[in-house]
């Protein structure tokens, strides 16, 4: 069994492309750690560095407590499954799964026993004598997993193993991977760009963007208390409302989040009040999930937003409403492309570097001796966007009507202009 530790691991591809930027990460014994992020953010690169298929440019990799930067792939005791698990076409399912054991000259009786045992667990015991060409995509992926896991590696690496399958098969195999990996107790690093896959499978999720770690925690932690606006938006199944608000503290009596035509009061008893009050006189970014806004009658007391219902959208299991509330919305704040930080010059590059550094250190601008300047170029562009509201199974409004929603202040996600959580970390 094995642990994985990455200490400031960086990958620069030949030609200067920075794919992974000072990644710090730990997968514990028997843990299922999911690496989540958009396409091109460096997930496969990271996984391939752990497997030994890609050189590490800088930083340290430890596998099971052993320094592994220069270990040959075959000495890492790692098995990997890829998106399109390539199989040996001329071998049967049995022959594919048993192949790694045959290479290792394992006792044929043990081989037989393990292949049968594993094929049952993977629900492919009926296909043992068939060739890959006669199998469905889901079955082929099960065989690939069987072949990877049959020699009982210390570490299991999976790179988007379900992304070529149709939705039904994905859900089915997802549950099976979860129970199989947990039954075996093998430490697993699982890469995906699908937030539902990450939330349902993971013990912990590490979210990446542009080669930089954004957040890490249990699914509940990263979903409910995201460290960055990027994480909040990426983990939302419906589009996240990201709004600009000015912070005011009138006569120090309470905190006012000023959304232009709407104001939301936050009492001093709110655990985040002090941290927010530090932003008095400046603008912050407020994230609100569509299900944290609840339609209420017109004369409702307490924090509310209101507007004209522009349109309703039917999603089968729920209705969403788009409410014209006249609130300035913001584009997801995210760090400038770090690749430009290394290759470009001038002020923009300097700023990029410091934003990346702050993201990594979790520090703030003031600590870095840098003024909390304007929102980085390309983000924070203010426009008026509709408020997206989850109505549930029945459309309680009609288009063109006036609608009012109650705001659950405890569920507001509060970020600085460059997208870092304002409240003090609770974990
Ligand atoms: N061999 C390579 N040479 C140069 N750039 C690469 C190479 N492999 C990947 N990249 C680049 O590195 C970035 C990260 O790629 P990758 O790790 O495959 O991302 P992901 O798996 O998250 O989609 C991408 O911008 C990709 O184009
Ligand atoms: Mg990839």
Automatic annotation (TrEMBL):
Gene Ontology cellular component list: ATP-binding cassette (ABC) transporter complex, substrate-binding subunit-containing
GO biological process: one example? carbohydrate transport
**InterPro entries xrefs:** AAA+_ATPase (IPR003593), ABC_transporter-like_ATP-bd (IPR003439), ABC_transporter-like_CS (IPR017871), ABC_transpr_MalK-like (IPR015855), ABC_transpr_MalK/UgpC-like (IPR047641), Mo/tungstate-bd_C_term_dom (IPR008995), P-loop_NTPase (IPR027417)
Which PROSITE patterns does the UniProt record give?
A: ABC_TRANSPORTER_1 (PS00211), ABC_TRANSPORTER_2 (PS50893)
Keyword vocabulary terms for this entry = ATP-binding, Nucleotide-binding, Transport
Q: Where is the ABC transporter domain?
A: 4-235
Coiled-coil zones? none
Q: Where is this region: Disordered?
A: 334-354, 362-381
Checking PANTHER family in the record gives:
MALTODEXTRIN IMPORT ATP-BINDING PROTEIN MSMX (PTHR43875), OSMOPROTECTIVE COMPOUNDS UPTAKE ATP-BINDING PROTEIN GGTA (PTHR43875:SF1)
- What name is this protein filed under? Sugar ABC transporter ATP-binding protein
Q: Which organism is it from?
A: Planotetraspora thailandica
């Amino acid at each position: 069994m094995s642990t994985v530790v990455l200490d400031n691991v960086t990958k620069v591809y030949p030609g200067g492309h920075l794919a992974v930027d000072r990644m710090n990460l730990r997968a514990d014994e028997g843990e299922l750690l999911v690496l989540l992020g958009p396409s091109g953010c460096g997930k496969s690169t990271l996984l391939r560095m752990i497997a030994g298929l890609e050189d590490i440019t800088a930083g340290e990799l430890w596998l099971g407590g052993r320094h592994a930067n220069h270990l040959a792939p075959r000495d890492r005791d790692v098995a990997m499954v890829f998106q399109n698990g390539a199989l040996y076409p001329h071998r049967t399912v049995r022959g594919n799964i048993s192949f790694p054991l045959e290479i290792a000259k394992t006792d044929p009786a043990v081989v037989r026993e393990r292949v049968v045992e594993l094929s049952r667990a993977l629900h492919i015991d009926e296909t043992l004598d068939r060739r890959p060409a006669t199998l469905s995509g889901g079955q082929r992926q099960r065989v690939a997993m069987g072949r990877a896991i049959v020699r009982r590696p210390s570490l299991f690496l999976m790179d988007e193993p379900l992304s070529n399958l149709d939705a039904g098969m994905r859900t089915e195999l997802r549950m099976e991977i979860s129970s199989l990996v947990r039954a075996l107790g093998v430490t697993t690093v699982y890469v995906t760009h699908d937030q539902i896959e990450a939330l349902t499978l993971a013990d912990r999720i590490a979210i990446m963007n542009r080669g930089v770690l954004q957040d890490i925690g249990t699914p509940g932690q990263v979903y409910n208390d995201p460290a960055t606006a990027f994480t909040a938006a990426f983990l939302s199944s419906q589009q996240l409302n990201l709004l600009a608000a000015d912070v005011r503290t009138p006569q120090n009596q309470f905190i006012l989040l000023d959304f232009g035509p709407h104001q939301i009061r936050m009492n001093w008893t709110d655990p985040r009040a002090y941290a927010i009050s530090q932003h008095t006189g400046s603008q912050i970014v407020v994230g609100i999930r569509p299900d944290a806004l609840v339609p209420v009658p017109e004369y409702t007391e307490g924090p509310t937003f209101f507007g004209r219902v522009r349109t309703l959208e039917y999603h089968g299991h729920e209705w969403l409403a788009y409410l014209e509330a006249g609130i300035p919305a913001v584009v997801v704040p995210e760090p400038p492309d770090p690749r430009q930080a290394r290759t470009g010059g001038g002020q923009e590059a300097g700023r990029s570097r410091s934003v990346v550094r702050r993201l990594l250190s979790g520090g703030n601008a003031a600590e870095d001796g840098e003024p909390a300047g304007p929102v980085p170029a390309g983000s924070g562009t203010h426009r008026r966007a509709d408020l997206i509201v989850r109505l549930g199974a029945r459309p309680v409004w009609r288009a063109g009507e006036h609608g009012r929603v109650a705001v659950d202040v405890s569920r507001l996600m509060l970020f600085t202009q460059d997208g870092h959580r304002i409240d003090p970390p609770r974990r």
